[in-house]
Amino acid sequence: MQTWQQLDQAYIMSTVSRYPIAIGKAEGNYLYDTEGKRYLDLFTGLAVNTLGHSHPRILEALEEQGRRFLHISNLFLNPPAIRLAERLVKHTFGQGKVYFSNSGAEATEAAVKLVHKWIQREQHGRQGIVVLKNSFHGRTLGALRLTRQPGVYQDFPQPDFPVFEVEPNQIDSLMEVCRTHRPAAILVEPILGAGGVVSLERAYLETIEQLCKEEQMLFLVDEIQTGIGRTGKLFAYQHFALSPDVILFAKGIGGGLPLGGLIASAHVADLFQPGDHGTTFAPSPLSAALGNAVLDVLLEDGLLEQGRQVADALWEELHRLQQAHPRVFKGVDGRGMMLGIRTHLSAEQVKRLQSELLEAGILVNVTAKTVVRLLPPLTLTRAEVTFFIETLERLITQMEPAWEVN
Ligand SMILES: Cc1ncc(COP(=O)(O)O)c(C=O)c1O
User: Fold this and answer.
1) CB-ligand 1 contact for 245 (6 Å cutoff)
2) What is the three-state SS of 142-195?
3) Average pLDDT of adjacent 10-residue blocks, the chain of 406 residues
4) Residue at a domain's end among 300, 334, 363
5) Whose alpha carbon is nearest atom 16 of ligand 1?
C-alpha cells in the first residue's frame, strides 16, 4: 500500500515541499497525524487558526450558519458578511467600506484595482505603487508584481503597471523614490512576514504616513499576516498613531475558512462601482459567520488580551535563551504572536533544527531560509511556552557542540 506521502507526490502538483506527516485530526493547539502522534502547532496553518483548532465558538458558528445557507452569490444581501464588514469598519476607520475576497492574493488584486480607480478619479498625474524589497503580497500575477522576492516572481510575466522597490526602513531612499517617480500609493506589511519577520520602525511608518498626506498618495497596509489579533491589536498599524487609507486582511479572519478583503476608509470607499470587481464565492456567508465568531472571541471574550500576556512570556523566554546561547541565536523580531527567531545557523542547520522539533512534537515554520518563524495560536498556554522553550533549549544544547557556528 502506498503511503500518503507517495500518493501526494503522485497526484498533487508539487508547489511546496511538505512535512512528511498526514494530518488525521486537529484540536485546540495540536495537530494529530493519522497514527495519532500529537504536535504542538506553533504556526497555525500559516497564521490562520488564531483561536487554535476546532474552537467551540467556531464549531457553533459553522453549524448554525451551515444549517441556514452556505452560498447565495453576491447578488443578495448577506447578513453575516454585512455584520462582519460593519464590525471591521467600526474597529478601524470608524467610517468606510469593506470589499471581500476569498484569499490574501485576491485582496491585493482588489487593492491594485482600487489604486487605479483612485488615479483615474484624482487625475493628479501620479502613477505606480511603492513596495518594499522582500515584501510578500501574494502569488497571482497582479499581486506577484508587488511581491518583491526574486525566487517567487522570477519565472513569470510581470504586468506593466509601475512598481518601485525600496529597502525597508530606509527613509532617504523612500523619499528619493517619491520625489523622482511621483508614485500614487505606498503598500507595506507592518512586519514583513515571508520576508523574514522584519518589523518596520515607527519613524519609517510615520514618514510613510506623512509623505502620503503631503503628496496625495494612498497609504495601504497589508495586514494579511499581521492582522486579526496576531500582534496583540486587531491590526498591527494600531500599535502606532497611524491612519492608513486601506487595510488588506485575510488569513485569520475566516477562522479556518477562505476569506479576505480590504477595508477602505471613507474617502476611497466608493471608488468601486457595480461591475468594477467581484468574484462568485466572496463573501462566503459561512466564512463570514466564522469571521464574526473570531471577532467575538478576540474582542468580547478577551482572547486578544490573553494572547498578549502569553506572547509576553514567550518573548521573555526567547530573550533568555538568546542570552544563554549567543552562538546560536542572534535575536528575535516581530510582535505578539508573530515572531522571527534569527540564528547564526546555516539554512541546512535550521532545517535540521526544524526536523528535530518536529520529531519532538513541535511544529515551527522557517522563512527567509534561516529565520525560525512562530505564528502560534492566541490560545497558547504558559505550559506550552515552557514545553517549547525547554525542548528548544535541550535540542540546541545537544546540537550546539557539533555545529560549526559562523
Ligand atoms: C502579507 C501577506 N500578503 C499576502 C499574502 C497572500 O495571501 P494568500 O496566500 O491568502 O493568497 C500573504 C500570504 O502569506 C501574506 O503573508
Assistant:
1) no
2) HHHHHCCCHHHHCCCCCCCCCEEEECCCCHHHHHHHHHHHCCCEEEECCEECCC
3) 95 92 97 98 97 98 98 96 98 98 98 98 96 97 94 88 97 97 98 97 98 96 98 98 97 98 98 96 98 98 98 98 94 98 94 96 94 98 98 90 58
4) 300
5) 225
